[in-house]
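Incident log, structure service

09:12 report received: a user says their structure output differs between two submissions of the same chain.
09:20 pulled the input from the user's history:
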Amino acid sequence: MKMTLDLRDDLLARAKELAAKVRTSLTKIIEKCLALRLRLHRALRGKPKELPLSPRTGGLREGIDPTSNRSLFDAADT
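09:34 re-ran on a clean worker, output below:
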């Protein structure tokens, strides 16, 4: 489908630069960016998972480091 977009000059220049650098078309760059943004929106729409809590203490279960993003992400994935 063809359509007209009104893009900021600086944004368009950067997108064209990227397209040339990776040897693809501006259309492909815009399609990939739009698809990525739509996937992100769909992922963020879902209800966030609750972190596992200890029934004994009410805090995070043993082995989850609240100061470590990796530890928290791993705990949310289980």
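09:41 both user submissions now match this output. Likely a transient worker issue. Closing.
09:42 reviewer note: Residues 26-45 form the longest helix (20 residues). The mean pLDDT is 84.
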